Structure formats: structure tokens, C-alpha cells
Amino acid sequence: MSSEKKEANYLDFELKIDPGAGRDYPICVINSPAGQASETMRFPFDELVLENRLKDLQIALLRSGGKHRRVKLPEEQAVQNFGKALFAALFCGEVRSRYDVGLTKAAQQGKGLRIKLRVQSPELAALPWEFMFDERQGEFLCLSRRTPIVRYVELPQPIQPVSVELPLRILGMIAAPDDLPDLDIQREKQRIEKAVKDLEKKGLVELTWLPGQTWRDLQKAMRGGPWHIFHFIGHGGFDDHRDEGLICLANEEGKRHLLSATQLGRLLADHEPLRLVLLNACEGARGGGGDIFSSSASILVQRGIPAVIAMQYEITDRAAIEFSRTFYEVLAEGQPIDASTAEARKSISLAVNNTLEWGTPVLYMRSPDGVLFSPEQAPLKEKIIPPVTQPAPEKQPGFAKIERLMPALLEEMREDIRNNPTKREFVILKRGWQYNSSERYLAYYLDEHDDLEGKLEVLVNLGFLREITYNNVRRFIFQEEFVDYLTAT
After folding, report:
1. Are the C-beta atoms of 79 and 356 separated by less than 8 Å?
2. Which residues 6+ apart lie within 8 Å of 287 measured at CB?
3. List of the chain residues with pLDDT < 70
4. Which residues contact 216 (CB under 8 A, 6 or more apart)?
5. Interacting residues of 471 by C-beta distance below 8 A, sequence separation 6+
């Protein structure tokens, strides 16, 4: 991260949705490169239809990310149609015109267009706007770094980037009460540590894990620090009776202790250096229908946290891991938080086959330009971090299984990685096929391995490979965890 002030990467397109009557809502472009505009949005769904559409979305999320498929499931197509309807309703008339001009002007300046949503209607604030789909571009808005979507909260207190002496200090907390379902938290912890390892060596980031999992442990940590980022891993939910989000910590006996968002804000808000909270917990972004400040994320922003990332639906461990890994990498490069979030969404979409979970994270922000940190000095000299003893490879999940299923293929992969340590991509071919490419790829042949495609599908589903089929040629990328295993055995 450079200590020099970076030019803003975005122009703002700030759009406000006011409470309405029936299905009609006043909307206003209050800031954009093309000026202001006002329209009336006709919401496309009545209450019953909306309820069914949201159910379809949750079903699609639950079914997405499975094994390789060539066509969209009906539920996935329904999500895209839902996103089209949201986009068409919100970007209507003069609002659409201002948006199109804004995109053009931003592109001319080599910038993106940050879409700031200020939703004042509680029932609309609870909707998953992150799934908006622009049919003209053939893409979901928030999957492009050019059009990040931010839930912008304007509050009276001004927010300025905090001046920090590098490294950025991350406080991680894992809560796994004994009476709740197990999470793959240890694996995520290892992946986050791996993601920031090089950043730690350069003095850009320092990750510390809170040893306890009670609110008293967190309160004690907040008296120390300084902490710039708080990353929570665990269970979350929404209290319909109190109309408020919550997270699950543990009590002194290791059983669940429900902490409301208001109480969490009370613990965090007085720690002045804190600029970002990441809630890797289910429904941390879910809001109620009676208050725009009802989700855990929006309550924390209301209490003074400049930016919060939370989940509006349940998210799988694998998607959450991919999000965290890319997010911290890009944030440490000095990018605004919305650019970091957009890149992390993209990683989910690429790393997990057929998934829709990239729309699950929601960014709430009250920093006008997305810049949360202003480093005062160059990075510290590279420091030596003692090597961490890794678990024996055969104890890693899934490895014993694949050794039994495909020993000959794994041995060939080991040999290829050793002989080509920088190569990560490969194709599958038949002997005699020609694959024209300017780059040299590793290749595995259908003639030489029984059910090669089936074996590769197993590796993809276990997260060891990622498929990037292009122009009808099946191409794959070795994931680093798998490379580590192959080179260590």
C-alpha cells in the first residue's frame, strides 16, 4: 500500500428511494456525473409475487455451487429475471438516461461508477438489490468492478480516513458454541492466514485471533489494540420479535449467547481506530420490514462504524473463504472498500461453479469515497514470520479419498507441478487433437485415464480445481491448497 494519496477510482451515482404509496415510490438521482433527476418507480411485484420471487432466490442459492452443469436451473434463470425486473424498475425514465451518461463519462476518465443506494423505505431496504441485472450488458451490476453497489448511509457525523501506522491490524474472532451446528471455521482461519501471509511479511497487515469467544473477551480486546478491522466468523440470525439482527457468541459454559446488533455496536463503536467490520455470519445484512436500521450491518453503521460487510443469506464456507481471501488482498493494495468487495464477489463467481452466492455479501458504507485508511508511512521492512507447522497432508479433508480414487492421475499431476512450478492451468484432450494457444498449457489425455472427466469433477467439487472452460475446450486451474498438497507428498 502506498503512502501517497490515490486518485479516486470512481464517480458517484447516488440514488435515493423514498417511502411510497402502494407500489409507487419516488426516486431521485441526487448526485451523478450527468446531473440530477426525479422519477416515480413502479415496483414490479405485489406482495404475494415478491414473496414467491424471494423464495425462488433462496432455493437457487441453496442449489447453486454444486457439480458441473451445462445449463441454468429454472431457479437460476428466475434469479436473473428477478434481477432484470429490479434493474428496470429502479433505472427508469430519466434515471436510466442519467445512469447511461454517467457510465460513459466515468469510462472516459478511466473510472468506474459507484452506485450508492439510499433506500429510505424499510420494505425496499430489505430487498437483495445486489442481484440487479442489466440485460443490455448481459451481466449483474455488482459482478463488475466498474459498477459496485453500496448501501450508503448518510449520517450527521463526518467520516474521514483514519491515519494509521502500518500494518493494518485485523482482529479476528471465531465463535462456535457447542450447541450449534459445526462450521468449517478452522479451514477458513487457515485460508485467511494464508491470504494475508505475504502481506504480513511486508508489514502491511497484522492478523490477531481473539483467544476467547465471549462478549467479555471481545470487550477486553476493544480496550487494547488499536484494531482497524474486526472480522467475525460464526453464526448469525435475525430476531423477528425485536426486528433486529444478532450474532451468536458463547457463554462461559461454551453454549450459545445471542448478542444483538445494538449490543455489538456498543462493544465496537467506542474503539476510534476501527474502520471496518466484516460479519461472516448468516443473515448479518437481513433487515426487517419496519425499520431501515434493523439489520446487524446497518445498526453498526448507524453507531458510527464507517463500513460493514455482512451476509443477507446463509453462505457456504467455501464461498465465504473465497470472499475473505480476495477481499483482504485487494484492500491491502490500497483500493477503496467497494472495489475490494467487487473483486471478492468476482472470485466467488469464478471459484465456485454455478454459484449465486456472490450476491450474498452486502456492503454498507458511510465513507463518501470508500477510502477507509490513510497510511502515514511506507510499509515496515519485511519481517520474518516463523514457519507454521502444517498438518500432515493425508489428514487434510478429501485427500485420502482422492488418493484411493485416482492415484495414477495424482502422480502425473505431482510430476507436472514439480517440473513446471509456475504453471497452474491445464487442458484435457485426446491424443491427436490440436489445441492452438499462444501459451503453453499442461495437458491430460482422455485416452490415458479411465473416466478422466469424472475424476476432474470430483476434484472440482472438493475445491481442489477450478474449471474455466472456454471455446468448448475444457480448461482447469490448480488451486493453491491442492498444489501445496501435491508438492508436499
Report:
1. yes
2. 122, 125, 126, 245, 294, 295, 298
3. 1-8, 62-75, 154-165, 183-185, 188, 282-294, 373-398, 433-440, 469-472
4. none
5. none
Structural contact between residues 271 and 225, judged by C-beta atoms closer than 8 angstroms: yes
Which set of grid coordinates corresponds to residue 238?
435475525
Evaluate whether 189 touches 401 at the Cβ level (below 8 Å).
no
DSSP string, 319-333: HHHHHHHHHHHHHHT
Task: Please give the distance of CA 197 from its chain centroid, rounded to a whole number.
Answer: 19
CA end-to-end span of the chain: 36
Q: What are phi and psi for residue 271, nearest 5 degrees?
A: -90, 95
Please return the burial class of 59, using the count of CB atoms within 10 Å of its CB with bins 0-12, 13-18 and 19+.
Answer: middle
Closest CA to 184 of 324, 286, 307: 324
**Dist. CA 9–CA 330, nearest whole Å:** 13
Cα–Cα dist 130/117, whole Å: 10
Question: What's the length of the chain?
Answer: 489
Q: What is the pLDDT of residues 449-486, one digit of tens each?
A: 888 888 888 888 787 888 776 556 788 888 878 888 88
C-alpha count within 13 angstroms, C-beta hemisphere, residue 209: 13
Look up the pTM and report it: 0.69
- State the DSSP code for 390: P
Domains in the chain (CATH in brackets) are 10-152 (no CATH), 162-375 (3.40.50.1460), 393-488 (1.10.10)
Cα 364 from Cα 66, distance rounded (Å): 29
What's at 376, amino acid-wise? Answer: E
Radius of gyration of the CA atoms of the chain, in A = 23
In this structure, the number of other CB atoms found within 10 A of the CB of residue 473 comes to 15
Q: Which CA distances in Å does 123 have to 119, 150, 239?
A: 9, 18, 16
What is the spatial distance between Cα 348 and Cα 130, in angstroms, rounded to a whole number? 14
Amino acid at 404: R
